TrEMBL record:
<feature type="domain" description="Methyltransferase type 11">
    <location>
        <begin position="44"/>
        <end position="143"/>
    </location>
</feature>
<dbReference type="Pfam" id="PF08241">
    <property type="entry name" value="Methyltransf_11"/>
</dbReference>
<dbReference type="GO" id="GO:0008757">
    <property type="term" value="F:S-adenosylmethionine-dependent methyltransferase activity"/>
</dbReference>
<dbReference type="InterPro" id="IPR029063">
    <property type="entry name" value="SAM-dependent_MTases_sf"/>
</dbReference>
<protein>
    <recommendedName>
        <fullName>Methyltransferase type 11 domain-containing protein</fullName>
    </recommendedName>
</protein>
<dbReference type="InterPro" id="IPR013216">
    <property type="entry name" value="Methyltransf_11"/>
</dbReference>
Length: 280
């Protein structure tokens, strides 16, 4: 079994995301974003992943107001549903598998919509933001967090540099950091008909559990476009030759981490995001 296959053995991508990335990276930011949720508001978590934001809203506001979550990936929705049930929140949160540009809700259905680190991945960002505005009530609130350029995230900057060094600079910037320009973000939101009320660069400390989680998780998503527009993955997770690629990446990654690699093996560093709040 290859290192990638062993890392994923018996677990879905959604399960690995929840166990190894959500607690130290996405949960702290969810707590920050949900401070913007009006009490008693009907809230929508767009590109919800495993439901980190939706569950944070439910914990913060016990009023029983409607909470919904959508994600294009059905395995993420399945994991989000399981986690909500495990916390006793199944009757508070309704999840649906749906792309961000085709939300399964009526017009004016929600008081607030949240997008945590999803906007940069949407194939049609203007359409997705237009959908968010459609399902928000007049005067409803959009709250979105988008990573800044990778220099605001030292651990990921080390990873991006390792990828460029070992696999080619054409694979960078990595997708999570591809919408790091604040002016571009503001323009996207305003062009969708929102009135931007604030757009601030903020930074929180984040933690990854070990040196290998990021390389072994992310390498499965690295790909180059072919002439016909399809993507060819950099590695086959089941090919024994992938072990050498992984080992080289981890070596190059570790060499760039400095003090962010702690004695206990965890990776601790700030991650910066632009947080935008806007009115429909």
């Amino acid at each position: 079994m290859t290192r990638i296959a062993d890392f994923m053995a018996g677990r879905s991508t959604a399960e690995v995301y929840e166990a190894r990335l959500a607690p130290g990276v996405f949960a702290p930011w969810a707590e920050r974003l949900t401070t913007e949720a009006p009490e008693g508001a009907a809230c929508l978590d767009i590109a919800c992943g495993t439901g980190v934001v939706a569950r944070a809203i439910a914990r913060r506001d016990p009023s029983g107001a409607e909470i919904a979550g959508t994600d294009v990936a059905e395995p993420m929705i399945a994991e989000a549903t399981r986690l909500a049930a495990a916390e006793g929140l199944a009757d508070r949160i309704a999840y649906h598998a749906a792309p961000a540009d085709a939300l399964p809700y009526d017009d004016d259905a929600f008081d607030a919509a949240f997008i945590q680190q999803g906007l940069q991945f949407f194939p049609d960002k203007p359409a997705a933001l237009a959908e968010a505005r459609r399902v928000l009530k007049p005067g409803g609130r959009l709250v979105a967090a988008v990573w800044t350029a990778v220099d605001g995230a030292p651990v990921y900057a080390a990873w991006e540099a390792a990828v460029a060094d070992r696999l080619g600079a054409d694979l960078t910037p990595l997708k999570p950091f591809s919408l790091g320009d604040a002016d571009a973000l503001r323009t996207l939101v305003e062009d969708a008909g929102f009135a931007v009320r604030s757009l601030e660069r903020e930074s929180l400390m984040t933690r990854l559990p070990d040196l290998e989680t990021l390389p072994l998780f992310d390498i499965r998503f690295l790909a180059r476009p072919d002439a016909d527009g399809t993507l060819t993955p950099i590695v086959d997770p089941d090919d024994p030759a992938s072990d050498a690629v992984v080992a080289g990446l981890i070596e190059a990654f570790a060499a760039r981490l400095g003090d962010h690699l702690r004695a206990d093996g965890t990776l601790v560093a700030p991650m910066a995001a632009h947080v935008v709040t806007a009115e429909a």
